[in-house]
Amino acid sequence: MATILQECPSERSSLLEDSDQSCATSIDSTTDSTVDCSPTPLPKLQLFIIIFIQISEPVTSTVIYPFVNELIRSLGVTDGDEKRTGYYVGIVVSRSAPFIYGV
Fold first, then answer.
1. What is the reported pTM?
2. Which of 15, 50, 85, 101 has the fewest CB atoms within 10 Å distance of its CB?
3. Which residues have CB under 8 Å from 78's CB, separation 6+?
């Protein structure tokens, strides 16, 4: 039937030791195929894109803060009372936090 023979470094071997072993995998007694045990390269471009998105997401979610005061004033919610502007800005910002941060 199928005989699988692997000569790859085990998980117990040190990661920093020189290992020139190659994996030999015999699937069948009639066929001999060898598989290279070279390390898989790090997907640098994909990781860069993910890190860029992770860094830019908080920046884009905080862009609203400088403009909320003017928005509340221009909508006329406070009827010109500057003391109430901060109260309504706090309500708008606290209500948008679950959508921005997924809380």
1. 0.44
2. 15
3. 72, 84, 85, 88
Identity of the amino acid at 97: A
Q: What is the DSSP string of 55-90?
A: HHHHHHHTTTHHHHHHHHHHHTSSTT-HHHHHHHHH
Residue with tokens 């030999």: 24
Average pLDDT per consecutive 10 residues, the chain (103 residues; last block may be shorter): 55 61 48 66 93 84 85 88 89 76 58
Q: Are 49 and 55 in contact (CB under 8 A)?
A: no
End-to-end CA distance of the chain: 55
Q: To which residue do tokens 């708008």 refer?
A: 92
Cβ-based neighbour number of residue 23 at 10 Å: 14
What pLDDT is attached to residue 22?
45
Cα 23 to Cα 62: distance, rounded to the nearest angstrom: 51
Contact between 4 and 27 (Cβ < 8 Å): yes
